[in-house]
Amino acid sequence: MEDWKVRLVSDRKEWEEFVKREPAVNFLQSWNWGEFHRNLGKKIFRFGLYREGELHSIALAVKETARRGTYFAIAGGPIPFEGQETKRFIEEIEKVAMEEQCDFIRLRPQERNTSESRALAKEIGLAVSPMHLTADLTLQLDITMSEDEILSKMRKSTRYEIRRAKRMDVEVRKSKDSEDIKTFYNNQVKLAKKQGFTPFPYKFLYEQFRSFVADDKALLFHAYKDDELLASAFVIFYNGEAVYHYGVSTPANNRIPGSYACLWEAILEAKRRDCERFNLWGVAPKDETRHRFASLSVFKRGFGGEEVEYLPAHDLPLTPRYKAIRIFEIFRKRLRRV
């Protein structure tokens, strides 16, 4: 690669300072996200592409070992995703993936889904993945406006529910206590049984929250009515953006708008932290009414915002086993209705 060198980044300050120069980067390429996966017992690789000693690109890769196969997952990266530089960078990452006996590399760049980004993916030799790596279609609110302006951009019924929650004296409490994840997880399990989805494991949620809250980059928001829990939101604050990463509700939320109160308080907290965007995270395409997150997406869209579609997850096959893995994942995707 001429005078380009790829090596692992071990300096947290160097990594985070690079991220700050890239406003599109979110928590998926943060130092904390790597620590979270390391705490789960996974092997992580913080790749850096250098030229004359200066860092030009980064990619946090997590080695995922599943029954169907082993692969590198690069969510939200590499950063940036452009030109021959990226092609060379991925070629070097590929060498390490082969040494780690991976069957493929799966990445979902933090790059909008355009003809240019699709052309680069094709040039690199990537194929559209049969599975999501992280949210491809997101809903993002501009929160640099005043509170009244933000409310004015919402659906009328959403504004009504936010105000109704206030009239009903719904109380939203913020928490940095990792032990609260236990209740969050239990409510998620109940919701999963009702709605037919696979819940995240307790350790996955616990370690993720613990990794970010240690740097004051995460909060739990709990909505209560007379000490009865209605809903909870797990929000991450990073690089000028707040992300509504997970949410749960209880049966009582069906009659009292706790989830609306949770999100509105999270938006206000994001403004207090000088965030510019509030990311409601993944939404289902409007025409996919049978999508398992269709009703949740209707709730999220009530808050307004811009729908931002990123380049979907792409795979770089490394071994002959990838063909069988791909067929398996296509069938699994159909079963899960995603």
Automatic annotation (TrEMBL):
This is BioF2-like acetyltransferase domain-containing protein. One of its GO terms (molecular function) is aminoacyltransferase activity. The keyword Lipoprotein does not apply. GO terms for biological process: cell wall organization; peptidoglycan biosynthetic process; regulation of cell shape. Residues 152-281 form the BioF2-like acetyltransferase domain. PROSITE patterns: FEMABX. InterPro entries: Acyl_CoA_acyltransferase (IPR016181), BioF2-like_GNAT_dom (IPR038740), FEMABX (IPR003447), PG_Glycine_Bridge_Synth (IPR050644). Keywords: Acyltransferase, Cell shape, Cell wall biogenesis/degradation, Peptidoglycan synthesis, Transferase. It holds the Pfam family FemAB. Belongs to the FemABX family.
